[in-house]
Design a protein that fits this description.
Length: about 425
């Protein structure tokens, strides 16, 4: 529980209300307004939750001004350089880095859950082949509660744990199946002798008729993409998972809700939108035209991969991602990739432009991830599913934290009603 030592006084309409000020471990102080309605008969108004803390959390911390991102206190740059995705999963889920024995046990628990129920293969066949893999994922993950009844009782800690492991283990399998289905290739079963990232690449790119060897450097880059996306405190999709979970919905339904929210172009869908934008720009000489459009108030166009609600300096994930992009393209011998040239030049111009400087718009994580994924052979439609499978551990950790929190209540925002006042019904003949 955060410390309370000071109070803020709110004076209005001859009322004076004392509100406790909570001091977190890091980040700005928080005014606790939970008693405001009961004592003052008023609500607060904060569309987009720009000034509202919705919960206490011990999982992830972001300092947007410093460009700092910590998972359980560990800087993302350190984890990206020294850790690996499954270790990060353990850290996010349980709060500490694992010992060797804990890691072996966790890895084997995840590995033993990578296959999906065989009947799910038939379930997939109900989707159109040209469905976006995110559409398939929302449906299939939501349907997991129909396949895994034995882990939907949220009052049972053991079932919660099994559901968490199942989702971390099966999301890559489901994402790879959605991909294979969309390109008309047979599903590839998981291989438990491969690490998490290599197994995902294998399920995506192997075919039954020949051997497929995963390049270790590409597996490492994929693992890093997963680490960088693993959690990001109370963003839109995580808040969606928490809100869905606050009603007591089962964890598979909650994660499906998170996937649906992530799909939007202002959130996880930005990686696909960014690459499509780079393609549309096409050549360096067309950049000024797009910069002009991004600044035009009457044009809805935005530079995808730029800006962030919280980071107002730089996105530390983008820095690591940029290094990875250089490494992967170098490894694959993709020199002078035109998209990378456009991206680099766009970044240079935008960072010098007063509009972007004033509004503190910097490249975000999605700016470079698409370039890496495309070089690996993924179509743009797979970018957001890869974000979703990476974020699953964050969603499930936040969901578990919420269920364990004795202060948990159903999420129920209020509103500022500006519609018609009460009026009498008029018969259709008199309208
Ligand atoms: N291009 C041009 N102008 C922009 C951009 C952009 N990408 N982003 C923000 N602005 C302007 C915006 O028009 C507004 O101007 P004004 O003050 O004159 O009205 C100002 O900057 C503040 O923008 P905002 O929309 O109020 O800021 P927000 O915190 O609500 O939105 C954002 C954050 C990420 C949704 C937004 O920056 C955006 O749409 N970026 C493009 C999409 C994108 O890359 N999203 C990925 C985010 S990182 C990964 C993730 O979270 O999933």
């Amino acid at each position: 529980m955060a410390e309370t030592r000071r109070t803020a006084t709110l004076n209005f309409d001859n009322k004076s209300i004392e509100l406790p000020i909570l001091s977190p471990v890091a980040g700005p102080d928080v005014i606790d307004i939970r008693k405001l309605y009961a004592q003052g008969d008023v609500f607060t108004y904060d569309p987009g939750f720009t000034s509202t803390a919705s919960c206490e959390s011990t999982i992830t911390f972001i300092d947007g001004d410093k460009g700092e991102l910590l998972y359980r206190g560990y800087p993302i740059e350190d984890l990206a350089a020294k850790s690996h995705f499954l270790e990060v999963c353990y850290l996010l889920l349980y709060g500490e880095l694992p010992t060797q024995a804990q890691m072996v046990d966790f890895e084997s628990r995840v590995t033993n859950h990578t296959m999906v129920h065989e009947q799910m293969h038939y379930f997939f066949r109900g989707f159109r082949r040209d469905a976006h893999p995110m559409a398939t994922m929302v449906g299939v993950v939501g349907a997991m509660s129909a396949f895994y009844h034995d882990s939907t009782d949220i009052s049972d800690p053991w079932q919660r744990e099994v559901a968490a492991i199942r989702m971390i283990a099966k999301l890559p399998t489901i994402a790879a199946m959605a991909f294979k289905y969309s390109i008309g290739q047979p599903f590839v079963y998981p291989r438990n002798n491969l690490d998490y990232a290599s197994n995902f690449l294998h399920m995506c790119f192997a075919v039954p008729c020949e051997d497929y060897i995963v390049q270790p450097a590409l597996a490492k880059a994929m693992d890093r993409i997963m680490m960088l996306h693993a959690d990001h405190e109370q963003n839109a999709s995580t808040s969606t998972v928490r809100l869905a979970g606050s009603s007591g919905a089962n964890p598979f339904a909650c994660i499906a809700a998170g996937i649906a929210c992530l799909w939007g172009p202002a959130h996880g869908g930005a990686n696909q939108a960014c690459l499509e934008m780079l393609r549309e720009i096409g050549t360096v000489d067309r950049i000024p035209e797009f910069i002009r459009r991004a600044k035009d108030k009457d044009d809805p166009f935005r530079l995808m991969g730029f800006g962030h609600r919280v980071y107002k300096n730089f996105d530390p994930r983008a820095k690591v991602m940029k290094e990875s992009a250089d490494e992967v393209l170098g490894l694959l011998g993709v020199h002078n990739n035109p998209l990378l040239q456009v991206a680099k030049e766009l970044e240079r111009i935008a960072l010098e432009d007063p509009y972007f400087i004033e509004k503190k718009l910097y490249p975000n994580v999605d700016f470079y991830s698409g370039i890496i994924l495309e070089a690996m052979g993924f179509p743009t439609s797979m970018f957001t599913p890869i974000f979703a499978l990476s974020r699953t551990v964050g969603w499930i950790s936040q969901w578990k934290e919420m269920i364990d929190d004795p202060a948990m209540k159903i999420g129920r925002p209020r509103q500022l009603y500006v519609g018609e006042a009460r009026r009498a019904y008029r018969d259709v003949r008199h309208r």
